[in-house]
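Consider the following assembly input.
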Amino acid sequence: MQAARGGVGVLLVGPRVALHAELGKHAGSAALPIEVVEAADVIGMDEHASDVRSRKEASINVCTALVKEGRAAAAVSMGHSGATMASALLTLGRIKGVDRPAILTHLPAQGGFTTLLDVGANADVKAAYLAQWARLATVYLRVVEDRENPTVGLLSIGEEDHKGSALVVEAHGLLRAAHGQGVNFHGNVEGRDILRGTTDIVVTDGFTGNVVLKLAEGEAKVLFGWVREALGSTLKSKVGGLLVRGALRGLAERMDPSTYGASILLGVRGLTFIGHGSADARAVKNALLRAERAHEAQLVARLEAALAGETPQSV
Amino acid sequence: MQAARGGVGVLLVGPRVALHAELGKHAGSAALPIEVVEAADVIGMDEHASDVRSRKEASINVCTALVKEGRAAAAVSMGHSGATMASALLTLGRIKGVDRPAILTHLPAQGGFTTLLDVGANADVKAAYLAQWARLATVYLRVVEDRENPTVGLLSIGEEDHKGSALVVEAHGLLRAAHGQGVNFHGNVEGRDILRGTTDIVVTDGFTGNVVLKLAEGEAKVLFGWVREALGSTLKSKVGGLLVRGALRGLAERMDPSTYGASILLGVRGLTFIGHGSADARAVKNALLRAERAHEAQLVARLEAALAGETPQSV
């Protein structure tokens, strides 16, 4: 409803009766551009992603089919991440030149945010994937976030070109070769560079990226908990705590993942956004606004154009 | 000098004249148990770790030789990490049953600290290494840090047994098999669990571990910088900031890597500690005290006993 009030037309996919009942609780919902689309089945959080193959009536499959048919501009899900990825890949297919789609997300960083991918779609990767993702993320930042010529860092364990795993050293060579041709390659970056914002984009495999994402979010929570604890530790700090509360609240909001709404599955032929299962209304609204921006910027067509001419590893 | 005042006998390895000149600046140093050992050469931070093979007079080689000969209980270096590892491996050799030594470090966490390894010795690993490291870290925590039956988590991208990269899934099987036999295996843990302290030990490859370490340290710095910024943003928060300064200082100290002094290279036949190049006096003192504790606990002999009967992958 928040997004619809902002002008985004929403197709709400799920059990029609329950969704209408829910909408009915909110005054004014009938006047908003919200349409309910029936989906009798849902893939639960504890079920298998591969179920999307057989359960055509599952809400996520209905969602991605709407995108495939052109009835929806984007699929946005806060449900089963694996099922969302599988359904998007199955229904929408891959962009030519992309071996594997990757999940791209944003982390708060000095000077704004750092764009990180892959944060979990591919635990095992090839060097060529990383080079393709650098291209995809560059187009994404340029057309959706208005960043001109964004810099790309390759996550490694030393800044020198030869540092890192065998995979990373190989990817470094590919990215070096791509520099100036759709990728503004900065070189290797380290864990500390992610929140420093050394580069606009950080490319890594989906295992490391997922660990980074969960560590970064988890650490922010733990540290703010400790700050709160410290502020309550003495009478003096309690009084001071009351005075600084407003200033710290702005900071907490900045660190809140829901600011960025959802991650995008980059590399499929259709817009697909994947959010946290714990997403709140603000996160859902921001995800829908971001989806609309990506659609208006013709992101998928721009990605296809940028990757045309690339030879994927596997066909 | 701080450690020597605490009763640790120190062999200071380096250019004799310069070291004596430095000691001479500090009143009372002559009465402390500090002996200077000549080493004319030093492997600089921008030189190659492999130089330890040819440059026998390099300070790190003199250091590890002192350990090998039994003249020193431990080697402690805040210099070139790669050279320290290479020199220790070359001079001291591996513990039987250990394929590759790993670097173990501690990160502040809820309830104390989390022990993480490998944080950078091995960018490319085999599953068997992770299982060996779990054993080594268990012995370390038990004998040096007095933790009874410490729990071991395997870093992955989902808590379920089958989640993760092919390597992690294989390691999971090995750790599951080792459970109850020298390893108290908790199962998979995620990035967010590291600072939550879900397990005492987190085992991972040296690539992921190094990214985690540098991200965790970097994020703490960035977040505290933002807190400081927020406290200085308005007159009200400035006044409050003065009142909470003391409380936050304790927290900053807790997050300071120098609290833990240095990391230990686990798996070589002799105590070897590797610190930050940017280590301060407190870090060096704490590293020396930790080295003494490990020596008194007969760590290397305990590790050898625990790994006896293990068949390494490579010989």
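The radius of gyration of chain B is 21 Å. Ask yourself how this observation constrains the way the partners meet.
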